[in-house]
Design a protein that fits this description.
The complex is a heterodimer of chains A (720) and B (276). Chain A is α+β, with helices and mostly antiparallel strands. Helices cover 26% and strands 24% of the residues of chain A. Classes of the chains: A alpha+beta (720), B alpha+beta (276).
Chain lengths: 720, 276
């Protein structure tokens, strides 16, 4: 009946492992690793300590209204201009009704208006100087290499302490290749500052915070009265922001080197495809020992744990059956499967890593093409912490079934690389939306006190990818493929209007409703290659013999002669001596250089359109406040309408041109000047603030519960 | 064989009907305890109680000997040998009752299996219907059609796997009910039951319908077997497995059945005066 596969097990291994586990159980309770640095500034530590007084303050001011509730819907990327137009056209009746009965305003985003930065403004009530997130990507000051700004997974340390004695951090199982770390690694949330729900919790307000960005791993609840699920920043099981797998009998040139996905050539033999789904590397193996024995290095891919699977393809019908683990899934061409639990065996019979995947049979004949989603962290059995408390994951799965757990689940990379077409992307995007809606309906049914914050990301990802379909002037517009999807985004706005209608129907008089977005959108017509501009202007210098087009991650840059460089989407850094690893610009000379570069940037014109490319070059020292200001980029580039810092800039590349057309599927963006891309703010009360900004929302929410604005918050309540 | 299996199944239906609306643990616990008692009585009637009692007494004596003479190596080893010998004797005395116990316990397990191993589909659930053909029948050259009744939708074309002799379909449950799928074959239609619950309460769920007089037909007596003249070996529906939770842990029903019935047997052996 069902095909079964057995993993090879070394003879006698279970006995050895059982013994080892027994020894480990005796030893491990005494093991510790050095605690990871919190990285919190003195101001934040003091602020954390001050939370103890919040409850007292509240009591002194009359206590909190136990009946009071605040519901915040965060709709990432909901654009003020589009929303206003659709409201005027009568297509968003519920948003219109809310605006008429309460308040509606553009909501200023962050500088730069990138989601992790913007949501961190919202979370902390501070600007980036107060939470330390300035871009999707930050740079290591010593090596100039980039890293993701929101979270970091630290490997297990080399040394652990057993009963206070430092020892090598591993326990090798005799006669096998297996090792067990005595102390584990850590997952760090790199956002600093204090989240507003930490203040609410200190005041005794129960909170549920669902998928808010810049909250991975979720801030642990001190009192156990906050439930949270991590959002943007949450990786897939490989530790990436989403890596798909695509199995095809028809690989194309370059398909062996894609960002965001792996393409595996396969063959159909006797109606069957045999392949492997690769998971995370196996950290329970002693690779030094293996390499020594086999006399050859073990590559990173070879370290990954795989799950073999078979796909039986019908001789002529567009259908196949996939057998993976204990699961049998019948896949019809053009349909996504349900979630399937997949188990990566790290140590046979002892340690497995559980993940979730969906499968999509793109084609059965004449070519075989199978797409597998990035493997998600299983909320029931979390390999990395994605909920707090951990049981919250199982509660959600019990209520609504499995769902995408990675940040930004719409597979933009698959669409970008042609693995998806518009239709498949829309199908997948619809699955994401429907899953999120089920979670929302569940949370709404449970919401009887305190705060509920709920995040929807579909509009953001869909607008990034599908803007071109509604913009015939976009360089990436292809009438044949895109015309039929011209109303896709509009329909998505209408769907959100339906969601709002459901919410408003059940709203009681004790609940304050806030609907907001972190930014709006603008077209992304033209790439600005900042590093090429810096190179042409003589600020960025390459080592002799290095051709600009070959530079990646700034490798090949001559740091002894470079004064400025770009990394990230909007960030520009001066190569300051004593701050950067090989800095050459003295701290005294840096301000003048920053002024000079800013002035030149604001004068750059696109030769094709004669438009100014940069609206404003924001100097961090003038716009940021707070303890982390010193880690900011020196200039944040505010791009004009239709322009954006290119992906090549974000990756530290120096391409051939300064400005080029964007013909990619990623066709809408918000990393322009923040004045171009305001978000929206709807409330069921009148808004009195003349120009509300994201950092005003934390004090607003606190004030709804009678809690005063905290010292680190730079805004004020929009109702006062 | 089917008339006997049907009679047994109806008897279990009658026994378990009062528990159908209760938590699955209730019915399983009652059946397990009753099974423990029945096993105990059968053991008492079919075993040589006197010999078992003597052997156990000897075992205790040899263990005591090991303790008392723990400083005398020769006596100690002799006692260990005697313990091992007595153990073998004990197992020999237990063998006969185990033979008598085997059939009733197997029947009970089969009956519990069709009630506790799987649970009905829910509206919206997807499932795979697999059909295994008789050896020598090639799926891609055989005309098979799956017809779904109202409330169930066939969601995929037929998937024919010649190397396995199987044909698969994906179905979607749309409405609750005890449905009958119809498999049109060149030898006439074959029916397969499909349970879609309004809720996942306890009840018979026949995951497999197999050829008459086969082992699978004995293991899955929830519905009549496939006629011997058919080209179908078995038809299977992938129902979700029923999960029994205990203190947050998932416990397999078979393990729970054995633990509770054995515990009940040991707890009540004094009441019935049976030496185990």
């Amino acid at each position: 009946m069902r095909q079964t596969r057995r993993h090879s097990i070394i003879l006698g291994l279970p006995v050895l492992l059982a013994l080892s586990a027994f020894v480990a159980a005796l030893v491990l309770p005494g093991c510790t690793a050095e605690a990871p640095e919190s990285g919190l500034a003195e101001e934040d530590r003091a602020a954390l300590a001050s939370l103890g007084y919040v409850a007292n303050e509240l009591r002194e001011s009359g206590g909190r209204d136990a009946e009071k509730k605040v519901l915040v819907l965060g709709i990432d990327g909901m654009d003020w201009l589009i929303t206003t137009r659709l409201m005027d056209e009568g297509k968003l009746p519920h948003f219109k009704a809310l605006a008429d009965a309460g308040g509606f305003s553009p909501l200023l985003s962050s500088i730069p208006p990138q989601s992790p930065v913007a949501w961190a403004n919202f979370i902390t009530g501070a600007d980036p100087g107060g939470h330390g997130i300035f871009d999707f990507v930050h740079r290591d000051r010593d090596t100039y290499l980039p890293y993701l700004s929101t979270s970091q997974v630290e490997n297990a340390p080399e040394k652990a302490r057993v009963l206070g004695i430092p020892v090598r951090n591993e326990f090798a199982v005799p006669f096998t290749d297996y090792i067990f770390p005595l102390a584990g690694g850590a997952t760090l949330n790199l956002r600093k500052g204090i989240a507003f729900w930490q203040v609410l919790e200190a005041a005794g307000v129960p909170c549920t915070v669902f998928k808010i960005p810049s909250n991975f791993p979720p801030v642990p609840s001190e009192k156990g009265t906050t439930k949270s699920m991590s959002g943007m920043g949450t990786p897939d099981i490989l530790g990436t922001y989403g890596t798909f797998s695509f199995y095809t009998t028809d690989p194309w040139p370059g398909s062996d080197d894609l960002s965001g996905g792996y393409v595996y050539p396969v063959r159909v033999e006797d109606g069957v495809v045999h392949a492997t789904l690769l998971g995370p590397p196996n950290d329970f193996k002693d690779y030094e020992k293996i390499e020594e024995r086999q006399g050859a290095p073990v590559s990173y891919d070879e370290r990954k744990v795989g799950i073999d699977f078979a796909v039986y393809v019908d001789p002529s019908n567009p259908v196949a059956r996939l057998d993976i683990g204990d699961a049998e899934v019948v896949l019809t061409e053009g349909e996504f499967s349900e979630w399937v639990e997949v188990e990566f065996v790290m140590v046979p019979n002892l340690i497995t890593v559980s993940g979730l995947a969906r499968f999509y049979l793109k084609s059965a004949h004449p070519e075989f093409e199978l797409y597998i989603t990035p493997v998600q962290i299983n909320p029931v059995n979390q390999v990395l912490p994605i909920t707090d408390p951990p049981e919250y994951g199982a509660e959600l799965v019990d209520a609504v079934g499995y769902f995408y757990t990675q940040n930004m689940p719409e597979d933009t990379k698959a669409l970008e690389h042609g693995v998806f077409d518009n239709e498949i992307f829309v199908k997948q995007s619809t699955i994401v939306f429907d899953e999120r809606l089920r979670c929302f309906e569940y949370e709404l049914s449970q919401f009887d006190e305190g705060l509920l914050y709920f995040y929807f990301g579909s509009l953001d990802q869909s607008t990034h990818m599908m803007w071109r379909c509604m913009d015939v002037g976009h360089p990436a517009y292809n009438a044949e493929e895109d015309a039929e999807f011209s109303d896709f985004l509009e329909n998505l706005y209408v769907k959100f209007d339906g969601v709002l209608g459901e919410v408003m129907r059940d709203l009681d008089e004790n609940t304050t409703l806030i609907v907001l977005s972190d930014h709006g959108f603008a077209p992304y017509y033209r790439h600005f290659h900042l590093n090429r501009w810096l190179y042409d202007e003589g600020y960025l210098v390459l080592k002799p013999g290095v051709r600009p087009e070959h530079v990646e991650w700034l490798l090949g840059v001559d740091w002894t002669r470079t004064t400025a460089y770009g990394l990230g989407i909007n960030a520009l850094y001066v190569n300051v001596a004593g701050r950067e690893g090989q800095g050459i610009v003295s701290r005294a000379d840096a301000p003048a250089l920053i002024d000079e570069i800013a002035e030149k940037l604001e004068a750059v014109r696109d030769p094709k359109t004669d438009q100014l490319v940069v609206v404003k070059a924001y100097k961090a020292s003038e716009f940021y406040h707070g303890p982390y200001q010193s880690t900011a980029p020196d200039i944040v580039v505010g791009y004009g309408w239709g322009y954006r810092g290119s992906f090549k800039t974000a990756g530290g590349e120096v391409p051939a041109e300064i400005i080029s057309d964007n013909v990619g599927k990623w066709s809408g963006d918000h990393c322009a000047d923040y004045h171009h891309v305001p978000g929206v703010l709807f409330t069921d009360k009148p808004i009195t603030h003349e120009s509300p900004s994201l950092y005003d929302m934390a004090p607003t929410i606190l004030s709804e519960f009678g809690i005063a604005k905290r010292s680190w918050m730079v805004g004020r309540s929009v109702f006062e | 064989m089917w008339p006997i299996l049907r009679a047994i199944t109806k008897a279990f239906d009658a026994i378990l009907t009062p528990f159908a609306s209760l938590h699955p643990w209730v019915g399983l616990t009652v059946v397990s305890v009753v099974t423990g008692v029945v096993m105990l009585l059968i053991f008492g009637k079919t075993s040589n109680q006197k010999k078992i009692s003597e052997t156990k007494d000897k075992l205790k004596a040899y263990v005591m000997e090991m303790w008392i003479f723990r400083n005398d190596t020769l006596v100690m080893f002799s006692a260990i040998g005697s313990v091992l010998r007595s153990n073998v004797q004990y197992l020999r005395h237990s063998l006969r009752p185990l033979v008598f116990l085997f059939i009733p316990v197997l029947v009970i397990m089969v009956q519990l299996g069709i009630r506790y191993a799987d649970e009905p589909l829910m509206p919206g659930d997807r499932a795979v219907v697999s059909v295994k053909l008789k050896e020598g029948t090639v799926p891609s050259q055989t005309d098979l059609t799956l017809v779904a009744p109202k409330g169930v939708r066939v969601a995929s074309p037929a998937l024919r796997i010649d190397s396995k002799g199987e044909v698969n379909w994906e179905i979607v449950a749309e409405q609750p009910g005890h449905h009958q799928l119809v498999l049109e074959t060149p030898c006439g239609p074959v029916h397969k039951s499909l349970d879609v619950g309004p809720e996942r309460k306890l009840g018979k769920v026949g995951a497999v319908k197999a050829r008459a007089n086969s082992w699978n037909a004995f293991l899955y007596p929830a519905e009549p077997p496939v006629p011997s003249s058919s080209i179908i070996e078995w038809i299977k529906v992938t129902y979700p497995h029923r999960e029994l939770k205990l203190l947050g842990l998932t416990v397999h029903w078979l393990l729970a059945f054995f633990v509770i019935s054995v515990a009940a047997g040991f707890a009540l052996k004094g009441v019935f005066g049976i030496e185990v």
